[in-house]
Structures are given as C-alpha cells and as structure tokens.
Amino acid sequence: MRLFTLLLFLLAGFAGSAQDTAPARGRGCATDSYLEVLKQQDAGFEQRSRLATEAVQQALLQKPAGQYLRQATVSIPVVFHVVYNKAGENISDEQVLSQLAVLNEDFRRMNADTANTPAHFRPFAADTEIEFCLAIVDPQGNSSSGITRTRTTRESFSFVSDNIKSSASGGIDPWDNTLYLNIWIGNLANDELGYSSSPGAAASRDGVVLNYRAVGAAPANTSLWEYNLGRTATHEIGHWLGLKHIWGLGITCRDSDGIEDTPNQENETLGCPEGITSSCNNGPYGNMWQNFMDYTNDACMNLFTQGQAAYMQGVLRANRSSIFSSVACTGELRSRFETAEPVDTLIVEGEQVQFKGSFAGYKPDTWLWQFEGGTPATSTEQNPTVTYTRPGKYRVTLTTANASMSHTLEKEAFIHVTDNDLLVYPNPASGFIILEQPARQQVQQVQLTNHYGQVLLDQQMQERVLRLDVRDLPAGVYVLRISGSNGLRIRKVSVVK
Ligand code: ZN
Ligand code: CA
Asked: Is residue 351 flagged as an active site residue?
C-alpha cells in the first residue's frame, strides 16, 4: 500500500515535470556547475584558472581599481552561433541584434532602467567602458554577418557535455577565441538560461552559451517569462570576464565574490524583491539584488559596480589582451608571420628558414616578402623558404594586400644568423674573453689553463655566449680548453694589461 502510494506520487511528479515548461524557480545560470564540470574534465583547468586570477590581481595592483576606467573604451568582437533543431529555435537576426543592443546599454550604463538603482547604490554603479561589436569578418577572412546558423538533429544541449561547442557533437566549433567572443544560442536542457567559461578554460570551450528563449529583449524576444530582456547575456558575459556570483559560491557569509564594493551577501536573490533585503550584517542598504551578477528577474537587475568594472577590465588586460588586436569588427587587414616549427629564428650560416605567412581581418590576395640578407631576397609565396649565408641580424618584411587594402609588417633583427664556428674574442684581451658559439649549442665546458697546465678558470657554458672574467689574471699567454659534443678544442689567448 505504501509502495503503491509512493509510485503514484512519483508518477504524478514525473507527469508534472514533463508538462511543466516553466523554468525552475529562479534564474537558471549553470556557470558554477559548469566550472565544476571543467575541473573534472580538464586536468589543467584549475591551475590555469589560478594563474589567470593571479595575473588579474597583479594587474590590478599595478593599476588600482578605477584607473583602468577612464581609458579608451574596449570593443569586444562577438559572433553569435544560432544552433537550432525546431524552427522556433532559429531566432531572428532582429532578436540577436536586440541582444547586442542590451549588452552595449548594460555595460555602458546606458540602460533605460538606471533609475531603478536605489539612490544608496548609485555611487557604486559603473560604466564599465566595455562595448560589444558584431564581427564583420570570419576567421577565414570572408565577410560575415556575425551570426552563424547551424541546423542540428540534437533536440537539446547540455553544459555537462558542452556539446553545442563542437560540430562533431551537433553544435558548431568556436571561432578563434583570442579574437572573438563566441556566444552559442540553442535549446538548453532543463531550462538552463545559460552558462559561461571563465578565464583559464581551454580554447575549444571558451565562450558563453545562451538559451534561445533568453536572447535579446522584448518585443524581439517573444518568450513570456522573467528572462526576456536580455540580461542573461549580460550576466554570463560578466562570468566570461571573471566575475563571480555576487553571493560567492555557497549559502554562507564566509565566502564572497572578491569584489570590494559589492555588499557581502549570503545567497542568491530570486524573483524581484521589494525594498531592502539584508544578510550577513551587510548594513543599512542590504543586499545589492539589483546587481547583474545576482539571480533576480531581468526587469529587476540594472547595475555593475565600479569594483566589478575594474575587475573585468583587469581580466581583459591580463587574460584576454589578444582581443585588443582583433580587427574582426573593423575588417582591416593585418599581416602576420612566424617561422614554421621547429625552425628557430636563431640559425647557423648556410641554414634555411621556412616562413609562415598569415593574416587577420579580410583575406589578402597577394603576399610580398622582403628578406634582408636572405636568398631569395623577395618572395610572393605565402610560406617561402629562405637561405641565410652570412652571419648577422636581419629584418623581415611582409606586405599583404587585397583589392581594397594592404598592410606591411616589419620585424627588425628577426633572423639571427650565427657564425658556423666558435668565436673567441678579443684576442689579446684585458678584461673579458667572450666565447660565442653557433646557434646549435655544442660547448659544455670551458677551462682556462696556464702554461703549467694549472686550471685557473673552469666554467659550464649554459648560454650561447659566455663572458670569461680575466681581469685578475697576470699578463701572459693562456690556453682555453673547450669541450663539448664535437670533442675538445684548444685555443691560445693572450691577456694584456
Ligand atoms: Zn551566473
Ligand atoms: Ca562582496
């Protein structure tokens, strides 16, 4: 009898949850759970996160909070990846663009509801000086609307498998995360509103994921719920820029979000409270439930603080500085080059270097290289091979161009060609004798002996260049015994006073 009742209860519960499409009570941000998943699935994640956080703290120490603000506004190139199964999930451009508008309002404190920030919190409210722009060029250098659309057979996506971030699992691969903020939009399981990676996540998992129903603001967002004003993206990008939930991690007053000007708060705030709610003896004004990093309804959150703004700026500079060089929204052309692995830029005379040309922004049609001291001296290939026959330090120049623009990148002394043989100079010497070996390290030990064979100096050669101090030696003729991978060599050197 009791078992039967239990069964009925379970069945009723099941039926109830299957029919109920309303979200679980409160904002369903899965970021904290997602970061736990990353820790489980990626052995290096915790360590990289810690290093990323330390780098931010270091950056903020060097330039205290607030000083990052008042600098030039940062514009972060964004690509939205719409991944859909049912037609309704293939949300309109208009809805996506309304999301971009919300982000630019919220992060610049241009949102229409700043008046809802209580007077006592207004002094803390910040223009973060962070903006978002829609990419106009894709990683291959082609024009783009900044919105990709991928049809999938998968009915929903989960933060546990992170499957929306890979074509192989029914989603779509990210664009270069050093140059774009990737925002995936799809049907998330369990009505999760969204989740984000935090600094330190692997490149393949870096970015923000949003429930398609939470994207953009009404009327473009037609979902009838508390999350139709686009604040989920504001909140998740806060995480992407290193912010924690305003209450910290657990239901306790002992943890915190690590931000000085957010009041200590015990737990998340659900719905939309009226007036002041307090916890953790946090003073006359109580919890800052109007903060974008709390869990209140979209209509009830309206500010980031100065401390949060400074922290996000710190993350941009310490962990995500590559975004500053992105031309994804301006569509300029940038030449780039390196030497192909494993060839070093330090070589021995007579060696070849394989260059690797690349670009950012719009795709170039032509490549024009100039190799000071190299053969050939010029090339129009993308990845030319060049021989250097004379020791020296040489400039490399690459100009890329297409029908509408060109860009030249010049690197002075990029290729360093060493002599083929060990150099010992000056001879005679009075202060130091310098030993300079070829690019490929061969010498391990250097001994200086007098004509009785007594060892006066004995040094390991750790670097390519060694300075032997002979200032204390009397004038005379000495012998250098240089031993390494190709045997023992003897050089006579004179010391003069
Ligand atoms: Zn969150
Ligand atoms: Ca706090």
From this structure: no
What tokens appear for 257 in the block? Answer: 């979000």
- Three-state DSSP state, 112: coil
Q: What is the pLDDT of residues 427-479, one digit of tens each?
A: 999 999 999 988 877 778 999 999 898 999 999 988 889 999 999 999 999 99
Is residue 394 included in any domain, yes or no? Answer: yes
Q: Are 455 and 488 members of one domain?
A: yes
| 64-81 pLDDT, tens digit each | 655 655 567 899 999 999
CA neighbor of 194 nearest in space, from 236, 148, 239: 236
Pairing type for strands 476-484 and 406-418 reads unpaired
How much distance in Å is there from the Cα of 17 to the middle of ligand 1? 24
Distance 155 CA to ligand 1 centre (A): 24
Same domain, yes or no, for 141 and 251?
Answer: yes
Per-residue tokens: 471: 């200032």
12 within some domain: no
393 and 412: one domain?
yes
Percent of residues, the chain, with pLDDT higher than 90:
83
Q: Give me the catalytic one of 129, 192, 236, 266.
A: 236
pTM: 0.84
DSSP string, 186-243: E-BGGG--EEE--TT--GGG-SEEEEGGGSSBTTTS---STT-BSHHHHHHHHHHTTP
CA of 236 to the centre of ligand 1 (A): 6
Q: Closest ligand to 282 CA?
A: 2
- If asked whether residues 486 and 438 sit together in one domain, one would say yes
Residues 300 and 359 occupy one common structural domain: no
138 pLDDT exceeds 90? yes
